[in-house]
């Protein structure tokens, strides 16, 4: 097909975003805590609380980012994924000219600016692709809702189809299994050398408050479990010792567990080596490079964990990128068969497009203010 007749397809990649300088830490945190998907209070309470929490947390967060040069590497790594995905999609010769765009939720590039770029490019169709394999209203749901707001604001009207989630996508699972196997083998060799039991794999996902699962009906936790089980099956190691746990707790609410900290302490008591896998992240950032590598590494040392091996995230692993290509194709098929997204947060409550694989409540009890 000639260049002129190909349809222009925008693939919009979503991630959380991270501060690009120490001065950006506080406004980044404010944007996060002012999101009704994170703090479901009506205004002006949410705004005031977000001001308070972001001011209080900023010094702690700045210290976290100080360890990695005062800024998050998330955007650069996401740009690499976008470039790799765009190249792979444009190699498909399926009648589309693809361009990948990035919209971050809490720092630059914001949805408003990216939506204006997509409009200026003249996209005929949009595929929304969260860089979160597991669906949470606090991440993918929030980004999709914010994107649709931005589209309305800039007058971007081309049809949209959203990929909900891909917790057991073969490319994602294979890339993860391959990287974990290498880390597991290294830890196993050390365990043999030390004459101790085989290591345990800890699938450590970013936690969420318990109410997000129990009251809002978020499928996130069950999808984390599905990913972990699929990776374990792919690794095909008999008698593998593994567990799922949750990191990054903030604030006074009860969060889902077990916590990664408790699992590290348990491993210390049992004299077990651990292989820590950040299964809800597909790029490196503060939660992996600081929390896992530095803070939990030190905790493991304190708790006398004999081996601490951290597996890197899939980033632009060719199998993961191939997995994303398959998610785009599947979403395109759904667009062609069923038409564009035909719901909003207003008509469906907290958004989730995948009615089959996740039981998200359509009338959630935790409906945020203004939604
Ligand atoms: C699966 C991914 C994520 C979920 C779910 C999630 C929920 C969630 N997060 C907070 C609070 C914070 N998160 C912070 C950083 C951060 N969070 C994610 C991903 C998920 N968050 C990422 C990728 C990052 C790193 C950003 C970067 O460095 O680029 C932070 C800031 C760091 C800190 O101060 O510790 C906060 C705060 C809540 C409250 C929440 C669910 C309600
Ligand atoms: Fe977070
Ligand atoms: Fe879903």
From TrEMBL:
Transmembrane segments: none
One GO MF term: lyase activity
SUPFAM superfamilies: Chelatase
Keyword Lyase: yes
Cellular localisation: Cytoplasm
This protein's UniProt keywords: Cytoplasm, Heme biosynthesis, Iron, Lyase, Metal-binding, Porphyrin biosynthesis
Reaction equation(s) it catalyzes: Fe-coproporphyrin III + 2 H(+) = coproporphyrin III + Fe(2+); heme b + 2 H(+) = protoporphyrin IX + Fe(2+)
NCBIfam families the record matches: hemH
Name the record gives this protein: Ferrochelatase
The organism of origin for this protein: Thalassospira tepidiphila
Lineage: Bacteria, Pseudomonadati, Pseudomonadota, Alphaproteobacteria, Rhodospirillales
Gene from which the chain derives: hemH
């Amino acid at each position: 097909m000639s260049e002129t007749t190909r349809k222009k397809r925008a693939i919009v990649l979503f991630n959380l975003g991270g501060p690009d300088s120490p001065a950006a830490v506080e406004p980044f945190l404010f944007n996060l805590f002012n999101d009704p998907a994170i703090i479901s209070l009506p205004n002006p309470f949410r705004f005031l609380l977000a001001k308070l929490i972001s001011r209080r947390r900023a010094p702690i967060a700045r210290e976290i980012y100080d360890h990695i040069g005062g800024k998050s590497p998330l955007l650069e790594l996401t740009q690499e994924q976008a470039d790799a995905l765009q190249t792979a999609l444009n190699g498909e010769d399926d009648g589309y000219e693809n361009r990948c765009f990035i919209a971050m939720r809490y720092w630059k590039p914001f949805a408003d600016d990216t939506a204006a770029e997509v409009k200026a490019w003249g996209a005929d169709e949009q595929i929304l692709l969260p860089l979160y394999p597991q669906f949470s209203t606090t991440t993918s749901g929030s980004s999709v809702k914010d994107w649709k707001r931005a589209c309305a604001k800039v007058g971007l009207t081309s049809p949209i189809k959203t990929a909900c989630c891909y917790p057991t996508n073969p490319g994602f699972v294979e890339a993860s299994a391959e990287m974990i196997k290498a880390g597991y083998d290294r830890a196993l060799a050390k365990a043999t050398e030390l004459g101790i039991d085989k290591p345990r794999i800890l699938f450590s996902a970013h936690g969420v408050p318990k109410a997000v699962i129990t009251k809002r009906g978020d499928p996130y936790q069950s999808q984390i479990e599905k990913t972990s089980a699929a990776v374990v099956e792919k690794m095909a190691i008999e008698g593998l010792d593994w567990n799922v746990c949750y990191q990054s707790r903030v604030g006074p609410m009860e969060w889902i567990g077990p916590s990664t900290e408790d699992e590290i302490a348990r491993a210390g008591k049992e004299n077990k080596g651990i292989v820590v896998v950040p299964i809800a992240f597909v790029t490196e950032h503060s939660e992996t490079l600081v929390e896992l590598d530095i803070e939990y590494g030190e905790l493991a040392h304190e708790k006398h964990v004999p081996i601490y091996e951290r597996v890197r995230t899939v980033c632009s692993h060719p199998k993961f990128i191939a997995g994303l290509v398959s998610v785009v194709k599947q979403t395109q098929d759904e667009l062609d068969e069923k038409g564009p997204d035909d719901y909003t947060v207003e008509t469906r409550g907290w958004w989730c497009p995948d009615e089959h694989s996740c039981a998200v409540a359509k009338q959630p009890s935790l409906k945020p203010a203004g939604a």
